[in-house]
Amino acid sequence: MSDNDVTVVHHPLIQHKLTFMRDKSTPTAMFRQLLREISLLLAYEVCRDLEIKMVEIETPLEKISSPKLGGKKLCLVSILRAGNGLLDGMLDLIPSARVGHVGLYRDPKTLQPVEYYMKLPHSINERLCIVVDPMLATGNSAAAAVQKLKDAGSVNLKFVCLMATPEGINVFQKEHPDVPIITASIDRGLNDHGYIMPGLGDAGDRMYGTK
User: Is there a contact between 152 and 119 (Cβ–Cβ < 8 Å)?
Assistant: First the structure.
């Protein structure tokens, strides 16, 4: 694991909200809201180095040169289904972003990702693509999703998750050493079923009240 390519956001508000998300007694509606709030805070970090350009505007008092986002609108790519929880909060902050979806599920026996859907905006090669999924557990699904984006032409990517494991980070970085990881927590590791420990359970199930 390369620390240079992994950013853990230790903001007190994020860590406070994450504690409630970990609590098994937190109800579904509150879990979804907390995830949305944390994703907005993570978006500040991941967008820290966005390209800007200077434009001429006129305030009520005078004309000035002022910064504005430059280049193609960025693309948020959700790994279905749990990725939509992070996507919603980021869109609150960046409503003009383009949105893509990659549908993957983890085979319960092999723990390997199986693709069932992919839809991306045009000019993907000219956009910063921020891939979102709450859990970087084994790392297999995230690595597969990023590879799909690279195959589609994406050359500028970041990966954002709520929590990760050392195992998942190692797998992801082995496949994609050029893609930075931004997360709120690096947890202890995986159990025999591929779940993050201590984690928060299955993010998708807790978001949508399914099992």
Answer: no
